[in-house]
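Q: What would this complex look like in 3D?
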Amino acid sequence: MNKGGRNLIILGISATIIAVLTTAISLIVYDASGDIYLDRSRPGFLPEKEEIEEEQQRDDYAFSEDGNLTTEVLDEFLEEYEKVIDLVEKIENPFSEKPLSDDYLGISNAAE
Amino acid sequence: MRKAFYSFIGIMLSFCTVFSSSVYALSENQKNIISQYCASMVQGFKTLQHVDVDNRVKLGSRYETAISKFMTPLNLRIVKNNLFVPELVDLQKTFADRRASFNNNFTVYSKHLKELISIDCQNYPEDFYNKLVETRKAREYVHQDVVYLNSILRIYKETVEKVKKEL
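A: Here is my prediction, written as structure tokens for the whole assembly.
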């Protein structure tokens, strides 16, 4: 094998090693930062179609920071703001203790 | 002198033994239950992971909407209209700080849940249970953040209603 061929092989191997290393570092950072727990592009975590439509509708409104402040303006603000509160409160008892409790898992009954 | 030294070493070793042993002692029956129903528990936790991510993203985006499209522009508009309502500014800051706490606590909780799922509960029920208790505590912190954030949203609305009455 001539010198040029050998250098090409070395280049290919080096490029592969660098690619593997940088990918590994990226995955480590992805996991350590917590972004993996928010990534809904993973299989099984994709949002439903209705949820996407609801998000798009909600994103249409934005209160303006410019202009006068009147009761009518604040009425409109409060009406739209209440919709956001309703959406938040629609999620019933988020992160409640129940799914991890001994009773729910049937472990506490076993102590008797 | 030598006796006092050996006594001190003995006491220190006793403390180490106490703190290194399992915090939660399970009965044999509990261990058997965990070993027997290990697979279904783990499957349940995997489902819970999905639900939690779903709720986290929904809540996160709604909190972001509340602060960026409502609180921030309203507070700016109030200032531009030469009004002074420090309560609204304080509420916005408190909300932002607690939201950061929610993000961090959720990440910690998710890591615990992931580790819990990976434990071989069939053969190591005590390790599994200890991890379950840690995960439970982490989840409680997330729950408290959500309760607090939701209460601030309501208080902010009540404060705006007071401002409206004074206009």
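A: To summarize the key features: Residues 14 and 24 of chain A are 15 Å apart (CA to CA). Chain A has two domains: 1-45, 47-112.
Q: Very helpful, thank you.
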